[in-house]
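Hi R.,

Here are the chain sequences for the assembly we discussed:
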Amino acid sequence: MRIEIKDLHYTYPGDVKALKGISLTIESGEQVAIVGQNGAGKTTLVKHLNGLLQPTSGSVLIGEWSTTEETVAKLASRVGYVFQNPDEQLFTKNVHQEVSFGPKNLGYESEKVEALVEDALTLTKLSDQKETNPYDLSPTWRKMVALASIISMDTPIIIFDEPTTGQDAANIERMANAIAALRERGKTVITITHDIDFCAENFERVIALAKGKVLLDGSANAVLGQEEILAQTYVDPPQLTRLGLRLGMKEVVRNQEEFLNAYKKHAA
Amino acid sequence: MCRRRKYLLLHFSLQVRFTMNLDRSFYVPAKSILHSLNPLTKLTLVFALISFAFFSFPWMAPVLILPVFIMGFVGKVQKQYLNVFAKLILPAIGFMFIMQSLFLPGGETLVFKFSIFDIYTETIRTAFLTVSRIFVMISSFTLLLLTTHPSELMSDLTGRGLPGQFAYVIISTLQIIPQMQAKAQTIIAAQRSRGLDTQSTFRKRVGALVPLVGPLVFGSLVEVEERAIAIEARGFTSNRTKTSLYEIPDSSFDKALRWVLVLLVIISIVSRIWLS
Amino acid sequence: MAIVNLKNVTYKYPLTDTLVLDGINLQIEEGEFVAVVGPNGAGKSTLCYMLAGFVPHFYKGELTGTVEVAGVETQESSLNEWVMNVGLAFQNPFNQISGAKYTVFEEIAFGLENIGVPRKDMKERVERALEMTGILDLAERSPYSLSGGQQQRVALTSILVMEPKVLVLDEPTSQMDPIGTREVFGVIRTMAERGMTVVLAEHKMEWIAQFADRVIALHEGKILLDGKPGEVLTSELLDGKGFGISRYTSTAREAQEQSLWPNNKNLPVTLDEAVEGFTPNPSPSPLKGG
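And here is the predicted structure of the full complex:
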């Protein structure tokens, strides 16, 4: 399912111009990270994808649907959105019910809902917590419940808003695994993140936003090495990328494997 | 622009306007006599006006209508007061007036007929009386809130013995309201993104209440615990005598005025009992 | 004289069976800057709340062993005494705003009002605190109009104004964006440099390695390691237990296996250390063996 954004402008009430002409295309199955300082327009942009916000001018197409012609509830069948704070979504008495909420809203029959729920719980390592009340879980696990609730909707496109904030390494790894599984299934995964290492290790394409416009858009290796430009929107390159740049390596690397391979050539 | 987009824009802008009203407190900063009065004095004035209107002679309430309006000008908050009057007070008492005029029993002198309703002078008079009492009460509280910053009011009362927890609950509630509204907006957005239908049939919208209220309540409980620890960590439940950053002036004029008001209230009630 | 003294401490929350802290022995000297690392659920927050007296006085539960901080012993005191000596800040800055005050200045004075500081001293103390943490320009703003990083600095200032002897921070930058993180770490570093005893629970190992004096690795309620940042954060004992090891460390370790990192060199935690180790034929440093 392709996403097409054409010359998108958005102005908040009170005349705050949040998006000043964004055009981009995201093909089916791409893994995209959106980075940039707070206020650059990341969340504003992403909220247009499921209709929560409507363009002041310009258009957003999800497949063949225009977001101005469909309700948020309908767009939810194509675009899943995992909000940053799980406590703003969780309300049922157990994990199973919570994860069933999304697919039920989409009108799937009960066998399909069951299957989707099982699958989502397996991906998020929550299969043995079906009967637990979400609020009895730690904040770390509540985050996984929120994740599962959107994965179970089986949407072709799924958006993560700051998935790693406040998480420990173990949970970040779990999330990375879940995202990898989604990638294998051909889902389009879009994430907003400040964790540039997480971004580098899990996403192929990086879009850097600054002041409502696209600053950089390209493959992770191409974008993340551009220290000076990224600094304009208060983004530091990932740890290993920085190391490579400081050592004067020619290739831009973004994870351990790439670094070691490039280093061998460099040191030789 | 399609129909749906117009709806969303209107919806959003109304939300923002409403939020902006409660964002800062109701209070209007200005230099007036009312502003310089001690908060307790103003509170006494409010209760005095209510006593005059409700417990004294019946003609007191209508007579006080004009003075209350004048107080708005004296307090230099006439614009904001008239705004509240037009949007809140007038519709409320107007509605009340019509209902009472149409439905109160005990009329004798018919004034005119309005379809199936008979309207009498006596009912109109009673309705007008009730409505002016309500007007005096709401208006005097409004003027109090317009000319007194809530923290000034609470500081003063706490200094006079109001328990600190009471003042805290009131002020934190006032400040939390816009935050709660913002939170509610996010919850609505999150649940709509899960396919929750908030725009179609009435039945669906009622069914949408639990997923919207649930996170608001549960999420708030989590926050409350942390906030309790935070204020505890700053000595909130310390048993030392509390001091306050600001001194709220209480002049001899204030004290005298309060006594005069109390006296007038007593006189107005006693004379009413005596003369009836 | 240790300002923090924990001996054989175990603790479990009410209505639970698991020991969240299991045999903690910890002494911290005045002026030390101690970082506590560990996966979520290891007991970092509980340890922080214990150092501030909220465990057990607020949370109840069962505590055994001795807990003594700044001369106040847990079993023989009430929460009131603890708040005077130990300052506590935690993850979510929004929840630390009292809601009782309309400006940052008043918010910071809130604590002083509660403990009965005379009015004439209050203004001066608040101004000093605002200058110390660099937020004097926010004094007249509403706390609710601030960014996350600004709010967290207000929270820190509100605690520092009460002049605690120990500052305990439970993941104060977890919810911050990069700018906010920088701002908050800046304040913490200033306080540490002024000689404040600081206990900081954190995940961001690179920063800890640069500025902390000592690191404690907590795992399943026990102290796994306790020592210098360079030693603790590169120890193999941390592997596979959910600690977020710095990528410089894990890459260098892997590089060592492939003979790309000198065998006798300590594993790096920071960028500078990694650059030094990976630079081919570095000029020998006069201080180290080269």
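The mean pLDDT of chain A is 93. The CA atoms of residues 7 and 128 of chain A lie 46 Å apart.

Let me know if anything looks off.

Best,
T.
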